[in-house]
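Changelog note: in this version the structure field was regenerated for every chain. One regenerated record is shown below for reference.
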Amino acid sequence: VMSYTVIGDAVNLGSRLEGLTKTYGVNIIVSERTVALAPGLKFRELDRVRVKGKQEPVGIYEPIAPVDEPAAQRFAEALARYRNRDWTGAGTLVTELDAASPHALYKLYLGRIRHFQAQPPPPDWDGVFTFDVK
């Protein structure tokens, strides 16, 4: 009887990303590397994160159907505002998206926005969310 195992950085990252699907309320999360290798597919950017065991941030995305593209574009605008510390503008866009189609992703960002409105991030904040659990 033979058994096989897979090891390596890509496998570890894949495992960490799979573990984030519940946090973001999506079925599949892929890295920016996958997005670069699949130019014919559509993706919605979810976040930039540091996963446990890695120092470099990685962009994470959800594959989407073309019919979801307008909402993905609006969310991209909300992400840009969020990263620029425009809590009001980001919150307005995310609230509109959530009202039109409730989603755990929108609730996640609304929670972060409320937190940063009450306690702004430090000046060196890079917009990346760091996960310290697997």
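Spot check on this record: Helices lie at 9-24, 32-37, 69-83, 87-100, 104-118. The chain is about 50% helix and 15% strand.
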